[in-house]
Design a protein that fits this description.
Number of helices: 13
CATH architecture: Alpha-Beta Barrel
Structural class: alpha/beta
Helix content: 40-55%
Bound molecules: zinc ion
Radius of gyration: 24 Å
Largest sheet: 6 strands, parallel
CATH topology: TIM Barrel
Number of strands: 8
């Protein structure tokens, strides 16, 4: 083509369009990266290995439990997530109570190797374990001495296991999210935890999975597929509503999306829904990060003076301790049978 003045003009216009498209693409990508990076979440599971509420295989409950954990780990692998699992070592014993019984006949009360193996597969998969006390005590009801003794007792099996992987336990989570009824207890516990190499890993997103699980695992046990499906749908929808609420609260309190820590449990409903739950969160624009990365967010350094009786996620703690600007009455709560049964078994 002969390049005359008219053609040159056309070429210049085309070049400009191309440059604009390129700039738009760069900006578009940059915006997408920024927006993806601005929503980050770490995933945690409490109550490992977790005793089944309603076993479907009475003859071999540990086999059922192991399968549940493998299912959780498969979903985590699919989304390339490195999670933290918080352990209650009491659940490693088949005879339920490793407390009094083991004092009399310790040899008969060794942990079930198959349950210890569950912790091992978490570590094999690159995840980390944390301390959730030995017997899932509530700090709102026992004194601090008993509570910290339970923390020490709760690391006898999993800490040496972690050492084999070159890791040391570093995260603690309060059972029931009960943090004690005074700021003096908060401070004393934090001092104890620091002396023993632990820091608190506070969840900012709590999707009330255990409430749904009370009804779900019972329906699953009796093979009520219609009901389990309905509960799964309800739970996933509820999770989305909870994310809506916490995202709005984060914006209201901090003007941005904080680095969240999500509390889940090693329970049936999470194992069965995890793939969909993680996809839902990914579709909302979240990037999955580790707890260590989440804790880099300065919000985790904020003061926490909440001493109320209810176990609640930390956005509430921080709001309560500061401006009290979020309308927490609007926080979604499960309805109907899920709520009723969960309320009856609140401290189970
Ligand atoms: Zn727990």
């Amino acid at each position: 083509m002969k390049i005359n003045k008219r053609n040159m003009h056309l070429i210049l216009r085309l070049l400009l369009v191309t440059i604009n498209i390129s700039l738009f693409a760069i900006n578009g990508t940059a915006l997408a990266v920024v927006s993806a990076a601005s929503k980050e979440i770490a995933v945690t599971f409490d109550d490992l290995p977790n005793r089944s509420l309603f076993e479907t295989d009475k003859n071999n409950p540990t086999k059922q439990l192991t399968a549940r954990h493998h299912k959780i780990l498969r979903a985590l692998k699919k989304y390339k997530i490195t999670a933290v699992g918080f352990v209650n070592e009491k659940g490693l014993y088949n005879n339920c109570d490793g407390n009094k019984a083991e004092q009399n006949k310790p040899s008969q009360y060794n942990p079930d190797p198959a349950r210890v193996a569950i912790l091992q597969v978490w570590l094999d998969a690159g995840h980390e374990l944390g301390n959730h006390t030995y017997s899932h005590l509530t700090l709102n009801r026992v004194d601090l001495d008993e509570y910290v003794a339970d923390i020490i007792k709760g690391q006898r099996v999993f800490a040496p296991l972690m050492h084999k992987y070159g890791k040391t336990p570093r995260y603690f989570r309060h059972p029931f999210l009960h943090t004690g009824r005074s700021i003096f207890i908060h401070a004393a516990l934090e001092k104890f935890l620091a002396q023993h190499g632990y820091i608190i890993a506070p969840p900012t997103i709590d999707t009330d999975d255990w409430m749904f699980n009370m009804v779900y695992s019972k329906a699953k046990q009796v093979g009520d597929h219609k009901k389990t499906q309905q509960l799964k749908n309800e739970y996933i929808k509820f999770t989305a509503n909870k994310f809506d609420f916490y995202e709005a609260a984060s914006q209201q309190m901090f003007g941005r999306s904080i680095k969240h820590i999500w509390l889940l449990h090693a329970i049936d409903i999470d194992a069965d829904c995890l793939d969909e739950l993680l996809q839902l969160v990914k579709d909302r624009g979240y990037k999955f990060i580790t707890v260590a990365e989440a804790l880099q967010d300065p919000v985790y350094k904020l003061k926490d003076t909440y001493t109320g009786p209810t176990g609640v996620a930390w956005l509430f703690h921080w709001d309560y301790s500061d401006k009290k600007i979020v309308d927490w009455k609007k926080e979604p709560i499960p309805s109907g049978e899920v709520r009723e049964i969960a309320m009856m078994d609140k401290d189970q």
